[in-house]
Design a protein that fits this description.
This protein has four helices and seven strands. The termini are far apart.
Length: about 180
């Protein structure tokens, strides 16, 4: 016979976290008219913002204790002709608890460029290099957008949805002779 553990106030805990997030939402929407929408969950706040507001919003959260940039990621929305940059922030502060801020913005796929955030979060450097190399996004003001993983340049960066893996394999690997052919 299975028994369940008592709630131990979990509902109140989550409710308290949501109230703190509500306060952050109010602050962010008052401070930035470019915030398109916000989604709230118990431990994360997801914000969709205009690209021109991203640096200011990152500064806003850093000043409020969200001083750890956990990740920068990219999604290729080929159908709409856009890339989505995703910044994930967290805080080590007891005051903020274990909450995450997920900031999303979209930029055009054609001639993709965005401002570097290294002046706000120094650890953005390898993330921006990786996204530059794999998606082809130019981070303006980045001190060294050099190769991080790949050995060569590609006509189309390999993580874009229009990169043809089969064509690449055929072009690159058909030039390499089989070991059996060398005998």
């Amino acid at each position: 016979m299975a028994t369940s553990l008592p709630d131990r106030g979990k509902g109140k805990y989550i409710e308290g976290k949501v109230k703190k997030m509500d306060k952050l939402i109010k602050e962010i929407t008052l401070a930035f008219k470019g915030v398109k929408e916000t989604t709230i969950e118990a431990d994360k706040l997801i914000i969709n913002a205009k690209k021109d507001d991203v640096l200011d919003i990152l500064n806003f959260f850093k000043e409020r204790g969200y001083d750890h940039l956990s990740l920068i990621s990219c999604v290729d929305w080929i159908e709409s002709g856009q890339f989505e940059l995703i910044y994930i922030l967290s805080s080590y502060s007891e005051q903020n608890g274990k909450k995450h801020i997920i900031l999303k913005t979209k930029i055009p796929r054609k001639n993709p460029k965005f401002k570097t955030v290294i002046q706000i979060f120094e650890n953005a450097e390898p993330y921006e290099r990786e996204i530059h190399e794999l998606f082809g996004i130019n981070f303006e003001g980045h001190p060294r957008l050099t190769h991080l993983f790949l050995e060569r340049n590609y006509k189309i960066p390999p993580f874009r949805k229009d990169f043809n893996t089969r064509e690449y394999v055929k072009e690159f690997f058909e030039k390499i002779p089989f070991v059996e052919d060398k005998k």
